Amino acid sequence: MALIEGYTVDRAFFTNNERDTICAQLISDEPDENGDFKMIDYHLDADDNDTDYQMLLQSYNLDQIHEDTFKNIRLEQNSIKRVAIEVAKKNGWILSDVALEDDVSYQRQDEVPDGNTKVVVETKEIRVAASLPEVLNEHVFTDNPSTEYLFELKLKLFEMEFIRENTDRELKKNLRISKTVPDALKAAIELWETK
Amino acid sequence: MGNEIIERKRNTIYVEDDKVIKVLTANIAQSRKIDYWLTVYDKLYAYDNRIVKIYDINDKTITMEKINYKYTLEYYMREFDPSYSHKKLNNYISQYMDIWNNFFQFSFTHLNDFYFFHTDYKLANVLVDENDNLRLIDPDSFKVENLFGYIEPAMFIENLIRLTECRRFYKNDFYLDIDTGTWLPKN
User: Fold this and answer.
1) What pTM was computed for the model?
2) Cβ of A151 and B43 within 8 Å?
3) How far is Cα B62 from Cα A135, in angstroms, rounded to an integer?
4) Tens-digit pLDDT profile for residues B41-52
5) What are the residue ranges spanned by the domains of chain A?
6) What local confidence, expressed as pLDDT, does residue A118 receive?
7) Chain A positions in Cβ-Cβ contact with residue B43 (cut-off 8 Å)
8) Four-point Cα dihedral B57, A179, A186, B114, nearest 10
9) A165, B80, B133, B161: most buried by Cβ count inside 10 Å?
10) What is the dihedral of CA A17, A8, A56, A59, to 10 degrees?
11) Is the Cβ of B32 closer than 8 Å to some Cβ of chain A?
């Protein structure tokens, strides 16, 4: 028996930390005159004595509800991060190079681990381009340069047209073998000046 | 140049005391990207030093480390090994898979939009050194690809099967068909 006649449970998730309230999102079985399916949020108590809860469990099991809850939390977190990033971009606090769900490693956070899956790749938080002071202090003028940043910088520089099309192997080699960010930038500037 | 010279169809290899120089008959494709390529290669070497170390590279020449090795995996698969054990073979299989997996892991971890792969990951390109560690040669076969389909996983899978089938040699009821490189029942 359905919670509402003519509607099927699309997903259901707990709405509080105590996990005693559930939001069941119901979708209409038939489209309306515009061809759209109607969605309804149906709230109920997660109580074994509750008739609605008993009906929900007839078509949707508890594992699915926990899984949907996990996904829903992720969705909400993504939305908040997206808003925060937009605000930061508008205020000039960060540059525009932002990866959210397009980032492969980021997507892995959305995977729900099960007993058969071993997560072997370290998940990354969203990657937001560092602000200029951060770049200068943490990556350029520092005694502890990040090799990962240097590697990414070199790849980005090699992709730039004036370097990619430059045929001076010696100058390009200087960029390749540079051990620090200032050295890499120096080599890139030399390539720029000889273009 | 070189104590030993190996002439092949598309390259000539000069083996010196401490290095190997591979001279290609044609220029390396997209020579303007050599330094970009080598930057990625060096990073992969830091990630898994079982790939051969490259000292220098230009349009036609690759200078790399000389590896002291016992045999290639291709040779091992074809020849009888008096000191064979399952553990020994499993060690080779394990490393062969691990190196392949590291191409993936490296690409996922350090490269955002593309894969860096050895496109000729055949048994003849894998050396076994004196400590039974595998070493991967033919570095110019490493390619930057942005689509998984281009990396031809079938070659890896086929060679993995051939390697695992090698144990049949020691059961004495199979023989290696040289033409196809596969193990067949004796009867």
Assistant:
1) 0.63
2) yes
3) 36
4) 999 999 999 999
5) 7-60, 67-111+122-128, 132-193
6) 45
7) 151
8) 60
9) B133
10) -120
11) yes
